[in-house]
Structure formats: C-alpha cells, structure tokens
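User: Hey, quick favor. My workstation is busy. Could you predict this chain's structure for me?
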Amino acid sequence: MNRDWEERVAAAWAAFDDYDEARAGEFRAVIDALVAELPADHPLGRFEQACAWDSTGHSDKAIPLYREALARGLDGIRRRRATIQLSSSLRNIGQAAEGVELLTKELDAQSDELDDAVRAFLALCLATLGRDREALAHTLTALAPHLPRYQRSTANYALALVDPALD
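Assistant: No problem, here it is.
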C-alpha cells in the first residue's frame, strides 16, 4: 500500500478512543471508506475491517474477516497480528483450543516484536482451557527477558512448570 493510505489508516486508529460505544459504527465506517480504496481482493482490507469489528466488541464478525485476510495472503507483521487477534477472538467465543493451535505454530515463526504477544495470548487461551501451568510457563517465558535480574532462573522455572523431569 502507499504511504498516504497507511498514514490515513494509522490516523484513524490513533483517533479510535474518540469514538465511544455508541459511535462504534462511525469508526467502522471510517475504516470501510479506507478499505474501499483498495482492490476488492486485497488482504489488507479484510484485515483492517476485522480489526475494526474486533476493537468495537464484535469478535464473531471479526473472525471470518481475519480468516479471509490470511487466506488472501496477508503477510509480514500484519499476518502475525491477524493470527494473534484471530486467536483472541476465538477464545472470546469459546474456541480457545483453536487459538492454542494457531499460536503454538507462531512460537516457531521468525522472531519479531510480537513474540511476547504470541505468548501472552497463548497463555490466555491455555488458561481458558484450564491449562494453568502451561499458561504460567508461557507468561514467565515472555517476562523473563525483561527482568533486570533472574532472567535465567525465571526461564528455567518456567520450563520446569511444563517438564516434569525438571521439576
């Protein structure tokens, strides 16, 4: 996409908090207008619409749009964002197991600034399924590198939570 379009999308999202719940439809209309500038089959359009529905409390409407964006070849950081957000939406509608499946695959994806988000939302999906030790292990694994001390200990304890041989 061109820089102007990207900047206008970023500006729309920067103004998101200006829209209260009663004006959520107005925000989605702003996103829809921007999406209308794209070719009809462009994956970014479905991604932005999914984000708008999701951010205004409609996970059920966002899920098929995330799936469509991914199926159309959404790539780069937005592909990973779509996977994280799709997984979160799936958890919201009672399908956390599919979220776990999607995010577990993301653990093997190329590392980027969303690694900790992958683990955070994986932990949420796992906790929803009652797999609290695994959820805590992922949370601690994401946290460990940010600690001023005890990084190695925290990472090792996190691993021990899910590997009985280390406990």
